[in-house]
Structures are given as structure tokens and as C-alpha cells.
Specification:
Length: 154
Amino acid sequence: MYNVFISYSTKDLHIAKQIKSILENIPSVKVFLAEYSIKSGECLSDNIFEAIKNCDLYLLLWSKNSENSSWVSSEIGAAKVNEKPILPVILDKESENNLPSFIKDIKYIQAYNDSNRATDELYHIVSENSRDKEFSNLILLGVGAVVLYSLFKK
């Protein structure tokens, strides 16, 4: 599985939910969206930080709302500490004008002018990355089979 963690402000949940449903149409992609991935009564921080630790891609939905979210800030810190690839999606022009330095240094997807193009680009990136991971896993499986065969051949 290719694990995508979506970081978002709860005020942008409707957008995060749309992106989740689009990405889950890609075979072998699993999306973590706290609102739907954590059951009532479970610890938010434990589940969120574990999901970031295990994700293959940290998808940051950046907006004026996320700029003011302490959860988003904490999640960004966890993604950076765990050296996760970060893909920012800029949701509004105001937040693009005030990008923090770590986003300015990453090629981001601008979604506020053409959401269809942004969605297509995001779908393509995740789809391509998930295929690359599947291919790498198949190679490892093949190498493992050769090693096992040579061990038991004797």
C-alpha cells in the first residue's frame, strides 16, 4: 500500500474529503484523514503521529485556515522530523502570498485558480508514486525468492 496522510484545517474538511475520495480511486492507495481514520474514543495525537510516521506522502492542504491551526503546525513538524516527502497544495491566494519558508522551497500545487488541473496533477503524482512503490516491492519480493531458493536448494 502507498499511504497518504492529508493534513488540513477542520475548516477545510470538505476539500480534504473530496481529495480523499479521489485518491482512494487509485489502486493500492490508502488515505489517512483524521476525521474518518480515527474512531471515537481513540487518542488523536497517538494515531495522527503514528500515521505520519508510516506515510509515504504527507499531503499538506495549505490555506488561511491551516496557517492558524496548531494541529497542522504540529503535523508539519512531525513530517519534517520523520523526513517525509511533503506535497503542499495551496488552497487560496492569500495563503500563497504568506508562504512559510519551508513551503517556498518545495514545488507546490496551486489549487485556487484551476481546481480541476490541480486535482489531475495530484492524482497523477500519487498514482505514479504508488506504482513506483509497488514495483520496488515486487523487486524485493523477487530478490527474497531467489535468496530463499538458493538457501533451500542445497
